[in-house]
Amino acid sequence: MSLVERFVSRRCATAQALADGTTRSLDTLPVGVAATIAAFDSDDAVARRLFDLGFMPGEPVVPLRRAPLGDPLMFRVGGIEIVLRRAEARRILVAA
Amino acid sequence: MSHAHHHGGGAPVAAPTGAPRIALVGSPNAGKTTLFNGLTGLRAKTGNYPGVTVSRYEGRVDTDSGPIVVEDLPGTYSLDPISPDEEIVAQVLDEAAELAGVVVVVDATNLRRGLGLVAQVQQAALPTVVVLTFVDELLRRGGRVDPERLGRALGVTVLPVVAGERRGVESLRRVLAGPSLWPTPPVLPPTAPDEVVGWAQSVLAAGHFAPPDPDSRTGRLDGVLLHPLWGTLIFFATMFAFFQTIFAVAAPLQGLIEEAFAWLGELARSSIPVEWLGRFVADAILAGVGGVLVFLPQIALLFVLISLLEGSGYLSRAAYLMDRVMASAGLEGRAFVALLSSMACAIPGIMATRTLPSAKDRLATMMAAPLMTCSARLPVYVLLIGMLVPSDVRWGPVGAQGAIMFGLYLLGAASAMTSAWFWKRIVGRSGMGLPFYMEMPSYRLPRLRTVLISVWDACAAFLRKITSIILVTTVILWGLLNLPLRGDTELVAAGVDPADSVAVTAYTLDHSAAAAVGRAIAPVFEPLGFDWRVNVGVISSLAAREVFVSTMGQVAAATDPENPTAALKDMTHTDGPRAGEKVFTPPTIAALLIFFVYAMQCMSTLAVMRRETGTWRWPLIAFVHLGVVAWLMAFLAHTIVGVLT
């Protein structure tokens, strides 16, 4: 079994289980307001990559700024600053 | 973004066969390439992975127990791949039998995420060492880490290495000597998301890790540089300064090169006793090479500026600011960097598309890149615009020549975006969309060494192009334009005085092999107003666009070696329906300019496209469709300008 197959098979249906209580998607979080990552809206390659980038459930995340034309958005998570488009930010649920 | 200028151009070192192989793995921006350069001292060997278009870098490192081979794998955030670059990393680690060990390079300021990659790499069950980079930055920003304790928690050796300091690299070199001695963890770490979170938490606690405070300097700079209003203004000012520098600063240097070659040409003409040989050296070799070599200062400057922007962290910000604009063509911010590089030359631009995770984006950007105004078009534009309008004509506050030049750059950029949009629609109908994400590095002072390496790489590649394809084409062209040499009897029979060298050259040119080719394709370009000599120039520009200028130079010099510029201006159609009329009328010049905006006249670009896509299909499609578009747009320009003048 190759390494890749190993990951894809071993990765469970993400942290959906953690999503209890009320959540909102990350793209709706106002600039400067911190929140805790709760889960992803579904489990696929994109969600797994967002996880690998540092969007881990339980981590605090804060939107830093919007680009001049409204998209993409810049976030601080796990000590780095990273840019996502709204479409990807929508996939991440944070505890409201 | 660092792929376009990766590593030095040091002499290739044959990797000793049988030497142990060690792979470097790490996320982009973790300092992997700096570490690789420090270890191998630029004795890197580049190649390609079989079957794919990802460059492979390996270098030799001498250790106490003999040489080992270190392979620098493409930067990746995860072994769960979503781009061709990333697939390679997983593949190489899968072929574990070939590897003696793996070095994972982890940015200490972002240790939590780095541990996720360490956990994935450890699944390969290979001897592993973790190198912690940017520990100095972690401490500066109020964080801390204890590498030794961290190593114990991970069950592997953890080595802190600070870029630019020899100490860390030396201790890594000592460790590399014996991969079989590296400690291995008794139990493999987890990779499932929920488990990784807990595992990383406990490892970080055991390693006495405290995360860094946000970089306040970067925060303050971003507050201005990414401000909706000021940030946008600064971006445009930066782009303006970028091109001003490339054109204004390079100009005096270009003048010097031009003069030097003109002087050498005169020297060759006057000192070589055999008349035709003198002309060959002066017109073919020196004029051909010199005409292209004048762009060396510009290319060097462009790469200085791009690597300064990249090294400081601003290029990522530019990609962030431009992402929404690029999205209108279906692309992402990083494609902007590829298109920006294409303004020097489409080749580094096409190579920069490797940073795009989406294969469709790569293809669309590759098809767009040749439309950006590369520096090879510049001499052609300068020559043609100079004939179209005198330098003292002004439209309001701006000079007409500069305005036309700017318009051509704009047309190129707009056409590139349109082309990207078109190809994205053609190739992008099926399959899942890839996520867009881009890490913003902290602002850092660019490293002189990195800047010099990238400039040297670019200049070396350009010089190779000049001494190979351009030199060969110029020589062949000279042969086609000047051979066969005519005997006196034939000249006299044709009514030409053999003592009148200008008349002899003109006669030879008119009856040369090139003339036959130029006349044969005349019907194709006749509607655009080109005569057979222009056709020869257009065909010769297939080797490299700049060759058009040296070809027209050779043709004009044959007519009037004293004043080739005037000769070109007054050139008339020798035959056909327009015989006697001037060749370079405004409609024809406009058609030529527009033709050069669109036509895919660059064999090197086609070859790189072939290499990057792995098939001749895309370069062929690019060549044909851009050729057709070029003809149609040129015809349109010829007609419109013809009506206006």
UniProtKB/TrEMBL annotation, chain A:
It holds the Pfam family FeoA. Gene3D superfamilies: 2.30.30.90. Residues 24-96 form the Ferrous iron transporter FeoA-like domain. It comes from the Bacteria. InterPro entries: Fe-transptr_FeoA-like, FeoA, FeoA_core_dom, Transcriptional_repressor_C. This is Ferrous iron transporter FeoA-like domain-containing protein. SUPFAM superfamilies: C-terminal domain of transcriptional repressors. PANTHER family: FE(2+) TRANSPORT PROTEIN A. GO terms for molecular function: transition metal ion binding. The lineage of its organism: Bacteria, Bacillati, Actinomycetota, Actinomycetes, Propionibacteriales.
Automatic annotation (TrEMBL), chain B:
One of its GO terms (cellular component) is plasma membrane. InterPro entries: Fe2_transport_prot_B_C, FeoB_GTPase, G_FEOB_dom, Gate_dom, GTP-bd, P-loop_NTPase. Pfam families: FeoB_C, FeoB_N, Gate. Transmembrane segments: none annotated. It comes from the Bacteria. One of its GO terms (molecular function) is ferrous iron transmembrane transporter activity. This is Ferrous iron transporter B. It comes from Tessaracoccus lapidicaptus. The lineage of its organism: Bacteria, Bacillati, Actinomycetota, Actinomycetes, Propionibacteriales.
